[in-house]
Amino acid sequence: MAELLRYRDDETHEEPAVTLDAFLGQTNATAVRLEPDEDARALIPHLDRLGLIEVAFPKFRDGRGYSAARILREAGYTGELRAQGDVLIDQIAYMRRCGFDSFAPEKAISREAADKAVGFYPEVYQKAADGRSPVWALRHG
Amino acid sequence: MYKYDEYDQTIVDSRVAEFRDQVARRIAGEITEDQFKPLRLMNGLYLQLHAYMLRVAVPYGTLSGKQMRTLGHIARKYDRGYGHFTTRQNIQYNWIKLEEAPDILAELAAVEMHAIQTSGNCIRNISSDQYAGAAADEIEDPRPWAELLRQWSSFHPEFSYLPRKFKIAVIASDEDRAAIQLHDIGLQIRHNDAGELGFRVYVGGGMGRTPMIAPVIRDFLPAADFVSYMEACLRVYNRYGRRDNIYKARIKILVHEIGAAEYARQVEEEWAHVKTLGLDPPPGEFERIAAHFAPPAFETGLSDEIDRSDPDFALWLDSNTHAHKQPGYAIAVISLKPIGGIPGDASAEQIELMADLAERYSFDELRVTHAQNIVLPHVKKADLYALWKALDDAGLGTANLDLISDIIACPGLDYCSLANARSIPIAQKIAKRFENMDRQRDLGELKLKISGCINACGHHHAGHIGILGVDRKGEENYQLLFGGSGAEDASLAKIAGPGFNEDGIVDAVEKAVETYRTLREDGERFVDTYRRVGMQPFKEAIYG
């Protein structure tokens, strides 16, 4: 697997992520992997003990993980939220907005290239999970 | 009209810079065509049979003269001197070079235009009533709400990789000129019994290979909850819309499979959560947008009298103008359907002329209609004759609005890589067959729509007469359908029987039309007679 791209200051979570079924069946796991067809809301009762949630993107066209990320952040999850799989550079900005702060793309993306891609848009039109103020808020600040 | 502020301009300029970078990486071979495809698609760039096609967004179909002139300039400089207005109120260019696409986007951005989300599995251009702000029957101008949706949906981070494309239309009158019940989401602005403003929300309509009329999932959505409710509708779709089969991925399939009531329940549950996130802009933001759509400075006390002494003008007046809310004014429709022409096409010179005429006669405004015509929404009745003369001199004066030759046709196999059959030559042959304008007028309103494949871009399901081109053992074959409507009386057309070849379909249309003429009762349109008598008499005439 290519190098991890992280936008967090804490240490990388060491424990391997288990499947959702395995996670829900045991009490001590602190990292879980969510497949596209799995319901992120199943994790909401357990967010306190989670240090890493890895959201799988087997195909970049499958956008369910974007909703999963927002649902987890909206529920108050503050741990590492990682997009893993067919993650392309031009998706990083949207993923950051949905609350992902860590990326494990199958094909390596350099930090420099990712920062450039994210930097194209100084303004955004809508609220999301990244705390940025949409232009309607700036207009009426 | 809406004017960009510094924020809007920054965002559109950012897109140009980003796309320039993406194209450079593609040309340098840093990304594969497969990786580039979703990026170019989200900028409206398709790889077609002969070249790249660029689709430019015309939000809710509204343009200024300056914007229209830029569209003509692009046609001349980057294409082969013409453009094609589409059923999504957009314009597309068929002969684009990839390396020039970023320059075109820069020229568009300079006049507050873009190609953002005109393709791809995201929220597409928001469409609306082409008579918005002018129609006598609207309760208010729907375009400020459409602009609010344009901003909310642009670069939406959660909804840019949906199961499939997503189309939203907004209207504000009981007469539906935007086919809202055939959209993924259709919104009708209305008042509730308490006099408050809100929306009737239709979800899950569409055409394509599985046409469906959208059910109502919320009879009255208060205006203050507009954006958050849309967010909930889209989130349920993004999470649960089918992704296993591209032909079952539109929201209509989800709504159909789980039922409108269950979909509505899931949306309400999601919305109860989403509403707490503060996603709805404050009323002040709507008011800011709405101020841009204030009515122009109409003159008052004008006469409604029109000199009808020129008989050709009188014919155009009767067919191509529509009632305006302001006394002394009319809505004028420019037909892009000259007999024998390509439906929706306009030359660079014609586009520039329409820009000039909008500035001179229509408070600098134009509209694109989903039927692929152009509207000058605010013309003084006293100016209509001069306007018509100028249009007629440029081949734009065809008096056939809503008649049999006002055909909607997709680009078909002449351009499109998905098509099975040509559409344009069929449209041309049918228009030629009914060339006699007296005959067309006698037939009255008759909406004929042609698609060159099952994806139904030519809206054949919604045609009073629909034609679907298919491939049958390597030959182009055309199926005939009757009884569709995209208006407030929405219905889906039914296939009459076995298909025809290119000449056979024209004969079959003529037989159907003659059957209508024999059977019609006073005041009945083709579709009314069909609904009354059913398929059988038409079948007998065509196949008997």
What's the helix and strand layout?
The complex is a heterodimer of chains A (141) and B (544).
Chain A: E1 5-6, E2 18-19, H1 20-25, E3 31-34, E4 52-57, H2 64-74, E5 80-85, H3 92-98, E6 102-105, H4 111-118, H5 135-139
Parallel strand pairs in A: 2-3, 3-4, 4-5, 5-6
Antiparallel strand pairs in A: 1-6
Chain B: H1 6-27, H2 33-41, E1 45-47, E2 52-56, E3 62-64, H3 65-78, E4 82-85, E5 91-96, H4 101-109, E6 127-128, H5 143-153, E7 168-171, E8 185-191, E9 197-203, E10 216-222, H6 226-240, H7 251-258, H8 260-274, H9 283-292, H10 311-320, E11 321-323, E12 329-334, E13 345-347, H11 348-361, E14 365-368, E15 374-380, H12 384-393, E16 408-409, H13 424-433, H14 437-443, E17 448-451, E18 465-472, E19 475-482, E20 494-495, H15 502-519, H16 526-533, H17 536-543
Parallel strand pairs in B: 6-7, 7-8, 16-17, 17-18
Antiparallel strand pairs in B: 1-2, 2-5, 3-14, 4-5, 4-13, 8-9, 9-10, 11-12, 12-15, 14-15, 18-19, 19-20
Describe the structure.
The complex is a heterodimer of chains A (141) and B (544). Chain A has five helices and six strands. The radius of gyration of chain A is 15 Å and the shape is globular. Chain A has 141 residues and is of the alpha/beta class. Chain B has 544 residues and is of the alpha+beta class. Chain B has four domains: 6-109, Sulfite Reductase Hemoprotein, domain 2 (Alpha-Beta Complex); 142-289, Sulfite Reductase Hemoprotein, domain 1 (2-Layer Sandwich), CATH 3.30.413; 311-393, Alpha-Beta Plaits (2-Layer Sandwich); 408-543, Sulfite Reductase Hemoprotein, domain 1 (2-Layer Sandwich). Chain B has 17 helices and 20 strands. In chain B, the strands form four sheets. Chain B has a five-stranded antiparallel β-sheet with strand order 1-2-5-4-13. A five-stranded antiparallel β-sheet of chain B has the order 3-14-15-12-11. In chain B, helix 3 packs antiparallel against helix 11 (348-361). The mean pLDDT of chain B is 96. The A-B interface holds A 36, 60-64, 66-67, 70, 74, 88, 90-91, 93-95, 97-98, 116-117, 120-128, 134-140 and B 5, 7-8, 10-11, 14-15, 17-18, 21-22, 35, 38-39, 121, 151-152, 154-163, 227, 235, 238-239, 243, 273, 277-279, 281-282, 284-285, 288.
